[in-house]
Amino acid sequence: MTNKAKADVLITAPDKREHGEATMDLLAKVFSGWLGYFTLCDLWKNRMYHGHYDWDASQIAIADDKVVSHYGVWGYNMRIGTGRVKVGGIGVVATHAHYRKRGLVSKSAWASIEAMSKLRYDMTVLFGIDNFYDRFGYVRAWSDMNYKINLKDLPQEKPKPQLRRFALKQRDDIDEIYNRENRVFAGTAVRPTYIANRCTMPSHGYLWKDRRGKTDGYVVVTTEGGKFCCHEYGGDVEQILRAVAALGRKDGHREVHFIAPPYQSALCKRLRRSTCEAEIRYRKCGAAMIRTINLASTLRKISSELSRRLKKSPFSNWKGELLVSDPREKVLLKISGGKITVAGPKSTKHTIRGGEEIAQLIIGTDDPDEIIEQSGIKLAGDARKLVSVLFPNQYPTLAPWDRY
Q: In the predicted model, what is the mean pLDDT of residues 211-222?
């Protein structure tokens, strides 16, 4: 799609052959103070050519015959319990210094939302600066919780079997473990996402194998600003902790930081049974943010998960119709025999009516009562008892590897 931002500026989806190199050049220049021009050229090449970058949903601004702004979209499947929804992850938003304050990012954001709608995306997620993206309908998606534990409180035993170093790029065996262990954790991506190494920090991967020679688990660690961190893991929890402890002690560290692990994971539960610290930072209009693109499609794709939640509740025999509406759509949930199906809108006395915060209910950002109180979502009829059953707190998060 294309449209004119000004007489001399064109907002359009980038063409891979025509605009690819120019876009990478722009991004490397804008962010050159971070890692350096040539390192960033390689990084953007990996992100755009060896992953899930969507050339049709992304937007660039062209002025004076050159690419002067970029608004990137990475498409992937996101988990909401057992459901899977198509998400557009927004990243690498940048404008050439000489073309700022023309509203190019705003025009690109709206053009991208329109493109994602046509391309049948369900939701969109970004990690943004404070007090900017809310104007496009984005609301807080989650707050990452990081854990810190002293290495003396981790197992003293050496990891068995031995650790083997592996290159940080897409591997089917690692993806298999990750997808299996995160199969119901809200916010996580269904892998593969990136094919090549797209980590911006000097991270190191270590794996171990079972007696048959099959990869049985792994950890990814790095040192950031003097802090020893574990960004990702998979496999037996005690082996993970042994591996992390051994690697940290080898390099003289006293503690390890686990970065944004799923709250309901076996490792997090194990940490919470130990002596550790959990740090969580809430940002109202920044960091991880979310917006619905297609409410009906989203609810349809998670209808089996909603049915599963209902069947486990005291209201499993409830029968009727529940209307859910956000600023753009009204969607009817037909409930009977513990099964939920999605239909076109119609009048009913059981309703959940809200603004953009309906996206928070869907992904389970917080306890539903808290979301409702803070956002002014209106409930009527039996929606007051159904909302906590259908949309509980899911503690969503997205692993650092999959971010855009």
A: 96
